[in-house]
Specification:
heterotrimer, A alpha/beta (235), B alpha/beta (197), C alpha/beta (474), B: 197 residues, alpha/beta, 23% helix, C: 474 residues, Rossmann fold, 12 strands, 50% helix
Chain lengths: 235, 197, 474
């Protein structure tokens, strides 16, 4: 199987991709990271640059062809590959969002993780609606030792990221963000988790600006954390 | 001259539709339920949900005592036994003004729908023309148990589309203020449904 | 060709209009309350149906069939209506439709007409055109009346006055009707009843829209709640119905799908209080003169687009508005059109048909692509897919811009892993902007992000660099 790290995680959140590797290897997978990979083309496609997205979709198929499974720590990138790439004339290999891969392919919900913190979870829109990941991430979190999972009010409401929407309609995006942050803060959680670093960058960026002290942590990093090798905040 | 212009518009619209070359669609799969459980009980419960008055009765004339002392419109062909004493019965021909001044109207119906608590009038026996059940503020509708269809599809199958149809589900209402339902605007503000078993 | 009045002349682009709306605290509060209420009610009404998905699929398929056979079905409808004593008119655009309706009113010597709420007539700006021709149109739907009396614009498909709360409605009624009334919804409804009663009883011409027209029987269907529709559809001598050419169903049986989908999706009821069905003219019952005006106004152009045409499946339930996080914050008027919200963002620009129009071209971007609209749509319009499709058309129409240059550069970088890696390393230099691991201020266009959000500092080592260091030598 191969890891598709996604350009955002590769560049800005390497700790998430390292966590995926650690987690999957712990579960007995042999993980490869083809170095030719770059970006799935989601930003281009969603902003109206279909013609630029097309070669990136082709490149994705070329890079990952030959792997049984591809896993991405991102619902929106996995959704882009699975739902949109075929409309761009490519037939990508089977690509999964991390929680789907763990539950559906590996058949595990208890991954042996330990994370002694109060956590709330935001189910990102593309995981929820495009991929239909459902409550698989919650099942995984519930099985984590020491983790105190608190329900996020209005969890299914969009956080307002939406790719370039966040800058093209910055004020509206911020208004949506404000409501999401209020819900996060209402839970009293120390950690906000999600399956997508893009949404976490957005919500986390707002939480950081307000010095709320709530930390965004990708689901993969929680699941990779164990008593022997616990999660540590990266500076 | 306008006729000619109208023809040109018609031809151009039809031509543009054909130019779009929309591919033929797949046959419609009707995987939804075409039949509902039906029954007096479900119908009564669903009508009541609209805050209509519902009564299950065996004797219509006896149930009409609430109309005593009122001026009530009755279509030409209601059963004679419904025209109980003590009611000021108003019969056609009636002007709009007379209908507007009436206290109430008594009708039968064509079909009812248990699933949605709906009664349907089609201008047939004991129903009269549409204005009769619109202007008076109080509508009493007699529904026979055998007129209750289980579902919307069953009800539509029993109806003739070319008749003037009115589907009524509870009293007049609006959701226009803060998207909350409030009963009573222009149509009859009280709907009473008598289910005859 | 004249400008399509589906968008309001002089409306700013969506981001500009939204900025104003977002600052309106009262509006935000009204919208949050109303959409929150209806969202919960709709979800409950739909949860009752274990065959909801099958109904949605059938709804989609019936409408796709209509679009595939639109010419045949329209001719069939025309024949059925004509055979039952009605007259059918065809209008290519708003101007043509308005002229037809005005001529019909003049033929009846009408100076005042009563109207049932209708999106089609709002889309073509009929009221304004009639007024200019000396005919005053009285809106009789409560929300439309609130908008009309408030000299306001609509902000919702189903509830055009959703942006108003009870206190504001009370103020409008007191000012324009000259009555004392409380802010209780029941009292406000009563005030509207009294205000309109005389109009209903005396006006000779009514104008309506149509929710559905049944091609094989010629029956027209209007769903409503208040009874104002029944008043207009039964009391006047003449009825003029204005309908978009796509509002057909092939057969009477097909209506069984939509009579289940529409009420639950729009007002969250099992069934709306009143549905009227009429076919041409019925002697002795209702209007004795019936005119059906079929309007194109951008629909046949929309039909040409294989992706965008699914917007013509829309049955105007407004479920997508009520669940849309963008609509909830900005309200409907920010969209500058009678069709706001997610469906408006895909329908309006297509009806306008000009992606060089900056306002219309801004609408497909007024979405975070969260997909909540698609999830609730009773006829399964894949709004997010149409949005990205239309964005591509906008980009194409705009040609070379600063954004397109940046996007091309980004695509070039992503096109090769080595270029991408170099860019990563160069980007890591942005670490000097950071304090405590965060960047709080970036120059434009990054400032659009950092105005409300920090940016994480790029890490010293990308994942791929780590991978090469730790795994590649093994």
């Amino acid at each position: 199987m191969a890891l598709f790290a996604t350009c955002l995680t590769d560049t800005f959140f390497p700790s998430t991709a390292r966590a995926v590797v650690r987690l999957l290897e712990r579960l007995g997978c042999s993980v490869d990271f083809p170095l030719e990979q770059t970006c799935c083309g989601q930003m281009h496609f969603n902003t109206g640059y279909r013609d630029h997205a097309r070669p990136l979709a082709r490149k994705y198929t070329d890079v990952f062809m030959g792997y049984d499974h591809v896993v991405a720590p991102s619902g929106s990138c996995a959704g882009m590959v699975r739902e949109v790439h075929p409309t761009l004339g490519t037939s990508p290999p089977r690509t999964f969002e991390l929680a789907e891969f763990l539950v559906d392919v590996l058949g595990v919900t208890d991954v042996g993780a330990w994370f002694p913190h109060r956590v709330t979870y935001h189910p990102t829109c593309h995981s929820l609606r495009m991929l239909g990941v459902g409550d698989k991430p919650l099942a995984l979190l519930r099985a984590v030792k020491g983790l105190d999972l608190v329900e996020l009010p209005d969890a299914t409401h969009c956080c307002g990221f939406g790719g370039t929407f966040a800058v093209k309609n910055a004020e509206t995006s911020t208004a949506m963000l404000a409501d999401k942050m209020r819900c996060v803060l209402d839970t009293g959680a120390e950690v906000l988790s999600a399956g997508d670093n893009s949404c976490l960058m957005h919500i986390g960026g707002g939480l950081s600006r307000l010095r709320t002290g709530v930390r965004p942590v990708h689901l993969a990093e929680i699941l990779a954390s164990t008593e022997e090798d616990p999660w540590r905040a990266t500076p | 001259m306008p006729e000619v212009a109208g023809t040109a518009a018609r031809e151009e619209i039809l031509r543009r539709i054909r130019d779009a070359r929309v591919p033929a669609a797949a046959p419609v799969v009707r995987g939804y339920h075409r039949e509902g459980p039906g029954g007096v009980e479900l119908f009564a419960e669903r009508v009541a949900d609209y805050r209509a008055v519902v009564r299950v009765v065996t004797d219509v004339p006896e149930a009409l005592s609430s109309l005593r002392g009122k001026d009530v419109v009755a279509p030409d062909d209601v059963p004679d036994e419904w025209l109980v004493d003590g009611v000021g019965w108003l019969r056609e021909p009636l002007s709009i003004g007379e209908l507007d001044r009436a206290d109430g109207v008594l009708t039968g119906c064509a079909v009812a729908i248990a699933d949605t608590g709906t009664i349907v009038l089609d201008g047939g026996v004991a129903q009269g023309r549409r204005a009769l059940t619109l202007l008076p503020d109080y509508h009493v509708c007699v529904v026979r148990a055998d007129q209750i269809a289980g579902s919307v599809p069953e009800a539509l199958a029993r109806l003739q589309p070319t008749r003037p149809l009115t589907f009524i589900s509870g009293p007049s209402a609006t959701s226009d203020i803060e998207l909350n339902r409030v009963e009573g605007v222009h149509g009859p503000r009280v709907l009473e449904v008598l289910i005859v078993t | 060709m004249a400008r399509n009045p589906v968008t309001w002349l002089g409306s700013p682009t969506f981001p500009k209009a939204a900025r104003v709306a977002l600052n309106d605290t009262q509006l935000r509060q009204n919208l949050r309350k109303a959409t929150g209420t209806i969202r919960g009610r709709r979800a409950a009404a739909v949860a009752e149906m274990d065959d909801w998905e099958q109904l949605r699929v059938a709804g989609e398929q019936v409408k796709d069939d209509v679009l595939a056979r639109l010419d045949t079905l329209l001719v069939q409808l025309e024949e059925s209506v004509t055979a039952r004593g009605g007259t059918v008119h065809w209008a290519r655009d708003a101007e043509e439709a308005n002229r037809i309706v005005l001529d019909l009113c003049r033929a009846e010597n009408a100076t005042e007409v009563v109207k049932v709420k209708s999106m089609a007539t709002a889309e073509i700006g009929l009221n304004e055109a009639l007024e200019a021709g000396g005919v005053h149109a009285v809106e009789t739907d409560l929300a439309e009346l609130i908008v009309q009396l408030g000299d306001d614009r609509p902000s919702h498909i189903l509830v055009p006055a959703i942006h108003r709360n009870r206190a504001e409605i009370r103020e409008i009624f007191q000012r324009r009707m000259g009555v004392e009334v409380s802010d209780e919804p029941a009292d406000l409804a009563e005030a509207a009843r009294t205000y309109l009663r005389e109009k209903f009883l005396t006006t000779k011409v009514a104008i309506s829209g149509a929710n559905f027209a049944v091609a094989d029987s010629g029956s027209i269907v209007v769903l409503e709640s208040e009874g104002n529709g029944r008043m207009c559809l039964t009391l006047p001598d003449t009825l003029i119905t204005v309908m978009g050419i796509e509002k057909l169903v092939p057969t009477w049986q097909d209506l069984e799908v939509f009579l289940q989908l529409l009420p639950r999706s729009s007002t969250a009821e099992r069934m709306n209080p009143y549905t009227s069905v009429w076919t041409g003219v019925t002697p002795g019952d209702g209007p004795q003169r019936f005119h059906l005006v079929l309007i194109d106004n951008g629909r046949t152009a929309t039909l040409q687009d294989s992706v965008g045409r699914q917007a013509l499946r829309c049955i105007r339930c407004s479920a997508c508005l009520n669940v849309c996080p963008v609509y909830e914050r900005t309200g409907g008027q920010s969209y500058g059109s009678v069709y706001p919200g997610p469906i408006g963002a895909i329908l309006t620009p297509q009806l306008v048909g000009d992606m060089h129009d900056p306002q219309a071209a801004s609408l497909p971007f007024a979405s975070s692509l969260c997909g909540a609209c698609f999830e609730v749509c009773p006829v399964r319009i894949d709004i997010p897919s149409v949005l990205t499709h239309l964005r591509a058309e906008v980009v194409e129409a705009k040609g070379r811009t600063a954004e397109s240059v940046a996007m091309a550069a980004a695509a070039w970088v992503f096109g090769s892993a080595s270029r991408y890696e170099k860019a990563q390393k160069a980007g890591a230099l942005a670490r000097f902007l950071a304090r405590d691991g965060r960047i709080t201020s970036l120059p434009w266009p990054g400032s659009k992000w950092t105005s409300s959000r920090d940016v994480p500092a790029p890490p010293a080592q990308s994942f791929r660099a780590w991978w090469k260091e730790n795994r590649c030598q093994k």
